[in-house]
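Dear colleagues,

As part of the handover before I leave the project, I'm documenting each prediction I ran so the next person doesn't have to rerun anything. This entry is a single chain, and its sequence is reproduced below.
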Amino acid sequence: MKPLPCRKLLPWLAVVAVIALGIYRVEFRPVPVAAHTVATGEVRAEVMGTGTLASHFKAAASPKIFQGRLVRVLVDQNDFVTNGQLLAVLDDGEQRRQVEMADATLNAARATARRVRDDETRAQAVLKLAQTDFERVGLLFTNKIASASDYDHAVEQLRAAESGLAVAQSAIVEVDRQQITAAKQLDYQKELLTDTLIRAPFDGLVIKRNHDPGDVVTPGASILDLVDTNEIWVSAWVDETAMAPLRTNQPAGVVFRSEPDKNYPGQVARIGRETDPETREFVVDVRLRELPANWTIGQRAEVYIETGRGANAPVLPVKFLLWRAGHSDVLVNEHGRARWRDVKFGLRGHDTVQVLSGLAAGDQVVAPAPGENALALDDRRVRVQTTAAAPGKSVAP
């Protein structure tokens, strides 16, 4: 049989080359992966929640009971204030007139009291004179020197004097009550006058200024918003499945989204007792021991609450856990090939997980490069590129 010319063999050779290249790429060419060598160490079990920065004590500096025009605002946003410090002043002209009127009423009551007491003194003198006359006329009447009409007149004068003293004494009681009422009214008006001075209810920080001089503010309308910086915490929403190991005073770490690489220390201050019926989450308040240089009430943060520790066991970075068949597994580098291995995990922290069985110290686990599918790595030849790359598509959630 006559051999085919070389030009006719070239297409077939190209097809064979492509097939051979594909077989090499699939079966023989090493796949670049990230790797980590398992070591023995400590792992901290953590419960994670997402929440917002809040203050345990917050207040609005506002008028108490009456409307007024704002005259001065003595502090501004981001100013620290102390308990009782003057923050703002309302127009007090009308209230001062109310104080003057109450003071005049009290003075009038005091003058009336002095007059009524003078009347009592006169009534006592009249009564004493009437008693003397009655005793004298009575003696004369007994000796039949005075007439019956003289005696009756003396009795009438005595009774009139007694009645006059009783009236004077009743007037004293009434005017004393008027003085007490006027004094209390004056104190009340003075207290209202102090309400035109808006003072800080505690040591804290002004986080918002809502009004300026000239504004008319009403009771309850916030002029300034204040928070107590000694009681700043993150109110984090935690899934109800993580409820069992939580306790107050457990240590916690707080990671703000503005500083994702820094962990601020905290402590569980309070555990909520109500679960949201839709999200199935409840609130855990974590008190911060340190605040960032820049922070805002309401900013988002992740909270990691330590619920336990495990030591002297193989520890694996969480990023090397791969999701397969509904659970977490790992790929192990066995003589240059990636192979799945069933592993039993224990305590799980933010970055690491404890290995109970399936891996030993010195084993090397691998993960695909970003964007690659871990399921396609099974029994493939691998080439370690780095130990810091992020896992691929099938990382456990």
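The first strand starts at residue 31 and ends at 37. The helical segments are 6-28, 93-142, 148-194.

All the best with the project,
I.
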